[in-house]
Amino acid sequence: MYDSLPLAQVRHARPDTARPLTAASLRQFSRSSRVARSFGSLGIALCLSASFAMTALTSVDAHAQARPKALAQSSQSSQTEFEEEVVPQRYAANPEVDAFINDLVARNGFNRGELQKIFSRVVFSQTAARLVAPPATPGQKNWTKYEKNFLDNTRINGGVRFWNQNAAALSRAAREYGVPEEIIVSIIGVETIYGRNMGNFRTIDALTTLAFDYPPARNRSERMALFRKELENLLLYARERSVDPFSIYGSYAGAIGIPQFMPSSIRNYAVDYSGDGKINLTTDVADAIGSVANFLKQHGWQAGQPVVWNIAGDRGSQGLAEAGADGQPEPHWKLGDFIKAGMLMNEPKLDVGGALDTPVLIVDLPTPGQATQYRMGLTNFYVLTRYNRSFFYAMAVYDLADAIKAARAP
């Protein structure tokens, strides 16, 4: 399922303040869904169609994306078998590739001859190009269907087993990075079902294809530029680690290993958590656990703080939530803005009076034919969207984490 393109990670400034909003203006917004929709247009709509890119394009480097149904690696031998149609020699003596090579030589000191040999062996991946192509008819976002793909017995029971088998590494990561064990487990479960489905595409073929032959799309030039950056990072990673770039396999969009990190994220956030002197996200579970935790911490995870709050189900509170659902992932309102406008919270343990200055955002979760669900996201919800710029993704990670923790409880 093509839920999300690897267009996730951005070095966003952490939101320290929330923009003020008067109670009167929020009430005015809540009177009309048309006005609420225009209100949303003030920001970047990041939760796209569930049948296409659940992730919005960003301006800086990219990160891992959800690959819930990535091609499975059934055995070690499958690493040498392509699950795709390929076209050889497409990138040998290619003017665009030659210009890319010249740039890498100038900026990174690569050997031109070695890069030319590499790209003479790279093959065009027709399957990768097909899978990233936008659908002819975009589908409707469907939260209920999306969530069912992740909150199943395979991921819940598998999450309990994964947690039990790796309890020491998870406990250590929770202490050192402040990220709860269940969140780390859930992300790995959503990404690859605990390492089961990491993808069988040769990464250099997939990235080169998308860097130079991305299919027609609205943001084609930006996407190609992004994949060229990831291709550069793959080559840098291979050089730094003395790894054959043709030995690296992953998803059709270039995500690698148990946590599905893009090459730039491996270089920036992956850690040697097992202490063996090398980083291995494909077979070293401890490295994957530590790397996920480090990624979230580096993007602003707040230890001991909640991810979302529940909003009361009365019509007035839901109307205010609809008005505030502008699609922006950053917590840019204050809780007090909504409380003063009349919103009620369904959080018995929440000290509302003491939390009025808390930066928040409204998470909208639409399902065709049903009332849209709304939740209030906090900074930690925003951090989850740094892993994948999709409200659906972040909410699925949170709900799966809760389910795994409950299933593991004595």
UniProtKB/TrEMBL annotation:
Its EC number is 4.2.2.-. The active site is at E191. GO terms for biological process: peptidoglycan catabolic process. Residues 94-402 form the Transglycosylase SLT domain. Signal peptide: none annotated. Keywords: Lyase. GO terms for molecular function: peptidoglycan lytic transglycosylase activity. Coiled coil: none annotated. Gene3D superfamilies: 1.10.530.10, Bacterial muramidase. The keyword Lyase applies. PANTHER family: MEMBRANE-BOUND LYTIC MUREIN TRANSGLYCOSYLASE B (PTHR30163). This is Membrane-bound lytic murein transglycosylase B. It comes from Pandoraea sputorum. The lineage of its organism: Bacteria, Pseudomonadati, Pseudomonadota, Betaproteobacteria, Burkholderiales.
